[in-house]
Amino acid sequence: MNLPNRITLSRIVLIPVMMVFLLADLPFLPEPIVWHGVELAWGQLIACIIFIVASCTDGIDGYIARSRNLVTNLGKLMDPLADKLLVSAAFISLVQMDKLAAWMAIVIISREFAVTGLRQIALLDGAVMAAGAGGKIKTVLQIVAIALLLLNNLPFEIWGIPADAIFVWAAVIVTVYSGLDYFIRNRRLLKESKA
């Protein structure tokens, strides 16, 4: 359990903390903030900060593992799983809060676990499948979309369209595209897998 793996584990530990602030009615929190006519509960704001901090740990643990030669099999398994759990928890919570259509969450979560499964098959065969550019763009779009939805899309608009809608649709489209691209690029691995 080296430093990068501890950072990855902290991301998993932050998930239930985020969900408590997001979904529980906590009596000790002050009254909601109203900014430009948009009401934002303190629980949502705190959950958004936790989500952003947890998302940032993804880049930090990977950088430390590679730069200090601390890459482990545990880290290879736990890191993508922690990412998927964080994003899935956020999207499912947003569906429960009526801030996101259920089908969008299902499409995104399905892609995440399908690609994670493909990566696990590759690991069993001793191959490491690096994330492509589409996967990295997808991750950024998902993080921005979740943050905007958690913040009730405080008066952010792009060309008169709410920014959260733009980023959610962009995240869904790029998620589907990057998933298809990932499977197409690695179809040979699926055919040759011993798993």
Automatic annotation (TrEMBL):
Output the superkingdom of the source species.
Bacteria
Give the stretches traversing the membrane: 12-29, 41-64, 140-160, 166-184
Name the predominant localization.
membrane
What Enzyme Commission number does this protein have? Answer: 2.7.8.5
**Which pathway does the database say it acts in?**
Phospholipid metabolism; phosphatidylglycerol biosynthesis; phosphatidylglycerol from CDP-diacylglycerol: step 1/2; Lipid metabolism
Per the record, what are the reactions this protein catalyses?
Answer: a CDP-1,2-diacyl-sn-glycerol + sn-glycerol 3-phosphate = a 1,2-diacyl-sn-glycero-3-phospho-(1'-sn-glycero-3'-phosphate) + CMP + H(+)
Top-tier EC class: transferase
Q: Which GO terms describe its molecular function?
A: CDP-diacylglycerol-glycerol-3-phosphate 3-phosphatidyltransferase activity
Protein's UniProt keywords contain Transferase: yes
Record's function text: This protein catalyzes the committed step to the synthesis of the acidic phospholipids.
NCBIfam families hit by this protein: pgsA
Q: What is this protein called?
A: CDP-diacylglycerol--glycerol-3-phosphate 3-phosphatidyltransferase
